Backbone:
């Protein structure tokens, strides 16, 4: 059984990376989310242990002290982190993992896990991105401006990723990312055991 692959997806707020990540899990088999921890309060519709692990600020700091995070970031007045156990448990069972993280977190994951595949979701333009942030209505105008003020710095990191996909149309964007995942799954370096199985006379299922 091959080890699971870690797919890191980043992009500025409003680029649609969360929608793409959910679409991947709904479209492909044997892939799941790594659940992040956060010290912020749940938003309407968010579920503990499914959307996030919602912890106190004190518990979050304790997790940092205990080296429980693969990466963490303090952003937009809140803290977010990826628990190591949430990732390693899945990949050790041969299941691929989607991580929806910011650029700083993505860089830290790449250092810790060089085999991770990074994908950056770009918006078609800055004006469209800002309108998406306003339209989703989940932040105050002040927070929208805070998020938008950091967009250029985030986009400047895009060339550091393995793949870049522009989200003009969400369905086309999803298909492009799914194609990337399927291609990575078929790389010879990730399937070194398959030729041996064929030579031994075993039948391989797709």
Residues:
């Amino acid at each position: 059984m091959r080890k699971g692959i870690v797919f890191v997806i980043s992009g500025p707020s409003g680029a649609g990376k969360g929608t793409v990540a959910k679409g991947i899990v709904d479209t492909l088999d044997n892939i799941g989310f790594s659940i992040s921890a956060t010290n912020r309060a749940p938003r309407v519709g968010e579920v503990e242990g499914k959307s996030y692990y919602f912890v106190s600020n004190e518990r979050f700091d304790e997790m940092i002290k205990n080296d429980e995070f693969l990466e963490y970031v303090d952003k937009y007045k809140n803290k977010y982190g990826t628990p190591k156990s949430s990732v390693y448990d899945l990949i050790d069972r041969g299941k691929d993992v989607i991580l929806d993280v910011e650029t700083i977190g993505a860089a830290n994951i790449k250092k810790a896990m060089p085999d991770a595949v990074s994908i950056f979701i770009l918006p078609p333009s800055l004006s469209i991105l800002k309108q998406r942030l306003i339209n989703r209505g989940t932040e105050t105008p002040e927070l929208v401006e805070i998020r938008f003020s950091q967009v250029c710095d985030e986009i400047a990191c895009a060339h550091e990723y393995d793949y870049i996909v522009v989200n003009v149309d969400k369905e086309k964007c999803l298909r492009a990312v799914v194609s990337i995942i399927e291609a990575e799954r078929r790389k010879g370096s990730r399937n070194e055991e398959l030729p041996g199985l064929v030579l031994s006379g075993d039948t391989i299922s797709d």
